[in-house]
Write a structure and sequence with these properties.
The chain is an alpha+beta fold. Helices cover 51% and strands 24% of the residues. It contains twelve helices and 14 strands. The strands form three sheets. It has an eight-stranded antiparallel beta sheet with strand order 5-6-7-8-3-12-13-14. The protein has a four-stranded antiparallel beta sheet with strand order 1-2-9-4. A two-stranded antiparallel sheet has the order 10-11. α3 runs parallel beside α5 and α9 runs antiparallel to α10.
Length: 520
């Protein structure tokens, strides 16, 4: 399964769960508008790779209660504190990932309903003002009155349709919010039933319980902040606020955080960010990135120098035979030969290097288990600029590029990994890969500021300030083992300051794998 969302204002987070197969391949094609002027001379491939692509892999399991079983064994003295910490970290991490994935669609649905209500309220008020002005002045012509009547009929029909849509959507949204809250609290309750008594285990439990309580409160408060105002959502709002208040009292009663930290949002946020890093550390695979081709590059440099020196030596011998004495002409001829050597040496070296490395991986990433420090897999990576006509047929088909987009610049990232599930932790045969794609290097190429757009509405000219935005297409192809490839296309709308919208517009493959992971 593949999911794409915003990690922050200028970064995309691409997450996928890797199944039991030992080989996986992922291709990312980024179609950048040609008007930005992107190219190898503006942004080198190695510079973009190191600045914009960050990969992290963690253990993942669909046996969601396994960490709780491990915690019970640890409580009975059958596991050491390190194994207890690992089991609880796995449980907490999968809960956080599932809560983030399940709350994001609810946030988007709440925002859509809120925007629809604002738009309906904004249309109703100008219409009432126009009718009052027409009644007072009485200067409208028959044709204008007919047009206004027609518009009023369409607006009324549109509002009626929106009202019916809201009536169908609001109960569903309320039900989803209620189920979301109940599921989150149920998971926390299962965790809190296994509170250890030993001091060596209690420290891990306090760290995880403190962070999960705060994180759950933050996600629920975000839902409340985006819910539409009004009586329809009053009950679910009270329910969510009651849960948040209860979690706050829970942390205060157990003295998880000092009063000084609780009063300062910045200190609290920084502390929770540190706790999350402590939780993720035991479940995140260690990785070491190695750039490939170092020895080959030295060999190519030596070969190019040797070949050029052969011709230089032959040229010097020919000049010496022609000009037996050391004269000004002889010195000038030697200077020309050495100048040609410097020119052709670099060109020959670059040409040989491109021919040798064409189609071959540029980086190798080694993965190790964080606890036992044993290798569990490796990954080869490519990154380069490509021409549209050189792309695979299925990539071009999914992109559906038109004439207006012929100047697009295509950035291609590929990773091919081979994992060893037999070396994973007991009960964990899957990994979750999170690839963060930082688009800040592209944002720097975009224009600053905004411009004005004029439009006609109800006989009046309206002026609006709009920012310049660019559409970037992201095509993803994933192949796991011998399964058919999964293809997706995402539209990323961004400006110089932020990513405005991320939308999936095409999906094909095994079950159209674009769902979020289930909650533990």
């Amino acid at each position: 399964m593949i999911s794409v969302d915003r990690a922050d204002s200028l970064s995309l987070r691409i997450a996928r769960v890797l199944q039991e197969e030992t080989s996986h391949q992922l291709d990312l094609y980024l179609f950048v508008p040609g008007e930005l002027g992107l190219g190898p001379n503006v942004l080198a491939e190695e510079a973009f790779y190191h600045a914009a692509i960050h990969v992290k892999r963690t253990y993942y399991s669909d046996r969601y209660r396994l960490p709780l079983v491990l915690s019970r064994l640890a409580e009975r003295g059958r596991l050491d504190p390190e194994q207890y910490r690992l089991g609880m970290s796995l449980y907490a991490y999968q809960y956080v990932v599932a809560l983030e994935g399940s709350s994001q669609p609810l946030l988007e649905a709440a925002r859509r309903v809120r925007r629809a209500e604002k738009a309906a309220a904004g249309k109703e008020k100008p219409r009432a003002d126009r009718e009052k002005a027409k009644a007072d002045q009485g200067r409208a012509a028959f044709g204008q009155e007919s047009a206004a009547s027609t518009r009023g009929t369409h607006e009324a029909a549109g509002r009626e349709k929106e009202g019916r849509g809201e009536k169908n959507e609001e109960p569903s949204l309320e039900t989803r919010l209620e189920e979301h809250a109940e599921l989150a609290m149920g998971i926390l309750e299962r965790l809190r039933r296994q509170q250890p008594a030993e001091e060596s285990l209690s420290r891990y439990y306090v760290t995880i319980d403190n962070y999960l309580s705060w994180f759950t409160e933050q996600r629920l408060l975000a839902l409340v902040a985006n819910l539409p105002r009004g009586a329809r959502f009053r009950e679910i709002r009270k329910r969510l606020l009651a849960i948040c208040q209860e979690e706050g009292r829970y942390r205060e009663a157990r003295e998880y955080n000092s009063e000084r930290v609780t009063r300062d949002p910045t200190r609290m946020s920084n502390k929770m960010r540190l706790l999350r890093r402590l939780i993720e550390y035991p479940v995140t695979l260690k990785q070491k990135t190695q750039e490939l081709g170092g020895g080959e590059q030295k060999a190519v440099k030596a070969l190019a120098t040797a070949v050029v020196m052969i011709f230089v030596s032959l040229g010097l011998l020919r000049v010496r035979d022609t000009l037996s004495d050391i004269t000004a002409l002889f010195v000038l001829a030697m200077a020309v030969i050495y100048a040609l050597r410097e020119v052709f040496k670099d060109d020959l070296r670059n040409t040989l290097w491109r021919l040798l490395r064409r189609g071959r991986p540029k980086w190798r990433r080694q993965y190790r288990d964080p606890t036992r420090n044993v290798p569990v897999g490796h990954q080869l990576e490519w990154f380069d600029y490509q021409r549209f006509l050189k792309l695979d047929e299925e990539i071009r088909r999914v992109r559906k590029r038109s004439v207006a987009q012929r100047e697009e610049v295509v950035l291609h990232y590929r990773s091919r990994s081979r994992m060893s599930p037999t070396r994973f932790l007991s009960g964990y045969e899957h990994t979750r890969e999170t690839l963060t794609l930082d688009l800040a290097p592209l944002a720097r190429l975009m224009d600053k500021g905004s411009h004005q757009v004029y439009r006609l509405e109800e006989g009046q000219v309206l002026r609006e300030e709009v920012e310049k935005r660019h559409l970037i297409n992201l095509v993803i192809r994933e192949v796991q083992g011998d399964r058919p490839p999964i293809l997706q296309r995402w539209k990323v709308v961004m400006s110089r300051s932020r990513i405005v919208d991320v939308e999936r517009v095409h999906a094909e493959g095994v079950g159209q794998e674009g769902q979020t992971p289930k909650s533990p």
